[in-house]
Sequence to fold (365 residues):
Amino acid sequence: MRVLITGGAGFIGCNLIQRIIDAPEVELLVNLDCLTYAGHLQNVTTVERHPKYVFEKVDLRNKAAVFATIRRHAITHVIHLAAESHVDRSITGPGDFIQTNVLGTFNLLEACRELWLGPRPSPIDPRQDCRFHHVSTDEVYGSLGPTGYFTETTPYAPNSPYSASKAASDMLVRAYHHTYDLPVVTTNCSNNYGPFQFPEKLIPVVIQSVIAQQPIPVYGDGMNIRDWLYVRDHADALWLVLHKGRIGETYNIGGHNEWANIHIIELICDIMDELAPELGGSSRKLITFVRDRPGHDRRYAVDASKIQHELGWKPAHSFETGIRETIKWYVENQEWVRAVTREGKCGVGAFSSGSSGLTAIATHR
Fold:
């Protein structure tokens, strides 16, 4: 397997690289990333000297560079993670989301189609030996009421420019399978959390705000509900689907961990008070309710029974164990936080939760 991971210097990508770099079937692992504000080479320092590892600084919007990378490394497997993924940023600047998530996915599909299905003789059968794994989000399905779950057949109903751009890319991947017989699989995951998540999302924002003893503003009533998936469980699922998922199929990946935002925030505050009593032991006092975000989906929850029944996957971490590991990681890696926030030009008001429903006013230098 000559694997290309797009967005490998980002949150999910770097955890996936650490998970698969030593797999015996991996001959080469190429990390394609253009190092936007959320992608950092600090995330992949543990593998940068690995003999299988290659880094390519390439923007998916650059068609020629994408094609050259796919050809030069004779890629046989793609895990497409790279995307603009922050809901608040998509509301204020939707153009970048269309260019990266839609046009970038198109360029990648075209490059794989040329190499795997093009007119030149190929020693491989793409239907057997190649795979394009498109990684998407549960946000493409829209918003749920107080009950029920998203399944793989739930109609798409995206409610933000971010989720609309991901829905469009999902449809492109589907079309390339049905039109050109490109060997694809798609996964739609619930909210991820864990080590190396850029500090603009809900969980790292709360941790950093408690450390800085700064306000934690919460959108609306704080009762927006998300299903939370530990990133290392997600990495296991992605690798499994790449290997064993049925061509042309979609698999929902969820953590079976539904939590309201306010309850997550309270839990993090309580664990921080336990782990860092020097902060005063009353972190909940930092919670402040603010005006809700436009188009804020009320609830997401995915039915992950298909991947469990067909492929035998289920998350290994409960939310309580995963969140404690995550908090400890951020507390112990404050230099990483300072480094990536300097690179990302984060300042006052720059940290926010995206789809998770929280914005924090925080400055970390």
